[in-house]
Amino acid sequence: MTQRSLDRRAEETEQNNSRLSV
Length: 22
Known about the structure:
Blueprint: H1 3-21
């Protein structure tokens, strides 16, 4: 996996966590 895809995954994870936190 390239660093770029890892960054994208991290962004998605953060967004998902924010939704769950609401």
